[in-house]
Amino acid sequence: MAAKSQICSIWLGSETGILKGVSLTKKQAFNFCEMSCLSRDQEVCVMAWGDPQESEVLVGSVNGTVKTFSTDKGIFTETRECGDPSQGRFTGLAVTDSSMITCVESGLLKVWKEGSTETVEVNVGNGICRMQQNPSQRHRVATGGKENPLKVWDLERPDKPIFSAKNVAHDWLDMRVPVWVRDIGFIPDSDKIVTCTGHHQVRVYDPSTPQRRPVLEAQFGEYPLTALSLPASQGTVVVGNTHGELAILDLRKGLVRGCLKGLAGAVRGLQCHPSLPLVASCGLDRFLRVHSLEDHSLQHKVYLKSRLNCVLLSSRELESSSADDSGDVEEVKAEEEEDEVWDTMETVMEKTKKRAAQKNEATVTGVDGKKKRKLVKK
After folding, report:
1. Which 3-state string (H, E, C) describes the chain?
2. How many Å apart are CA 271 and CA 254, to the nearest integer?
């Protein structure tokens, strides 16, 4: 399994609890799990890199465990109990230099220090949908959820948030606008934060200014937005919704710069490559898709047999060479999952041969009244 895991550049977590690795160079996909002990409570909720070298993948499950997968060895090396299933599933997972950060739906954020049983607990409010770490300041995280506005926390001083967003003004009917933050992203080389909501809104906040309300608001489509990701080229954001629609929005003017087609189900996982103009998406239609952000074309399409919840991209190149000049989409077939039912079924060939022979025969009535079959030449 070590040889298989070392060539994978994209990792995905499924509803069935299987960690899946995809190699676009070899055009192969692999399953990394114990097939004998799979259960529904092992559904993968969140994933994150365990170290800067990207040699470990942290996998958070519904049952509250965080497993460490070694990409060098191709096996799970550690399992930690980091949550109570009664408090909800994981909504965020991150690491700092010496600790691991987890957050669950009930709003309990924990900092697990390495080599110590003590944890730092922060109550960030109920109904959390997403916890996101600041890549440039790793001790800062942002949280948000249903009727829980955007908040930024400094884990070195976790007593209170360093920024708390204020809801927008009442609508034209003078009614309160509901709050439902679904995903969060930190804009590189700035203090600004972008969020997407369950009411198809994209908002940009600037904690460096006294204004607590969004400095920019845009809308896309009519359905709830579920995920967002920021490309390597600044100034845009990629968002996905529950109807399988992907769009690139301009963060300066709030306009839609293009749509990425091909999806057939709700988007659950979305991540842009840190250096290349590529974005990977996955969701309920069981496909991993890689789109180009330059010409908006579909570059790769991978069927992985299970509903997918999250995607994690390696910072290295996803493939050694670019797509074919003909522009055809590469479709990768996943490795067959172990299934004893298919292994025990016997292959039946006689009926197929018999039907083929009957197609080449015709019934002829002889002089004696008996029916005979005669071979028909084509």
Report:
1. CHHHHHCCCEEEEECCCCEEEEECCCCEEEEECCHHHCCHHHCEEEEEECCCCCCEEEEEECCCEEEEEECCCCEEEEEEECCCHHHCCEEEEEECCCEEEEEECCCEEEEEECCCCCEEEEECCCCEEEEEECCCCCCEEEEEEECEEEEEEECCCCCCCCEECCCCCCCCCCCCCCCEEEEEEECCCCCCEEEEECCCEEEEECCCCCCCCCCEEEECCCCCEEEEECCCCCCEEEEEECCCCEEEEECCCCCEEEEECCCCCCEEEEEECCCCCEEEEEECCCEEEEEECCCCCEEEEEECCCCEEEEEECCCCCCCCCCCCCCCCEEEEECCCCCHHHHHCCCCCHHHHHHHHHHCEEEEECCCCCEEEEECCC
2. 20
Q: What angle do CA 112, 118, 124 make, to 5 degrees?
A: 55
Average pLDDT (166-179) is 94
Q: Are 180 and 147 in contact (CB under 8 A)?
A: yes
Q: Which tokens belong to 65? A: 């465990």
Nearest to 225 by CA among 250, 194, 253: 194
Phi-psi region of 63 (alpha: psi -120 to 50; beta: other; left: phi over 0): alpha
First vs last Cα of the chain: how many Å apart? 52
Residue 350, pLDDT above cutoff 60? no
Which residues face 278 on adjacent strands? 292
Which tokens in the block code for residue 212? 């607590």
pTM, whole model, 2 decimals? 0.82
Question: Which residues have CB under 8 Å from 97's CB, separation 6+?
Answer: 138
pLDDT in tens, 290-302: 999 999 999 999 9
Asked whether the beta carbons of 110 and 82 are under 8 A apart, the reply is yes
Angle at alpha carbon of residue 143, lines to 142 and 146, rounded to 5°? 155
Side-chain-side CA neighbours of residue 363 (13 Å): 3
Please check whether residue 267 is in contact with residue 244, taking contact to mean a CB–CB distance below 8 angstroms.
yes
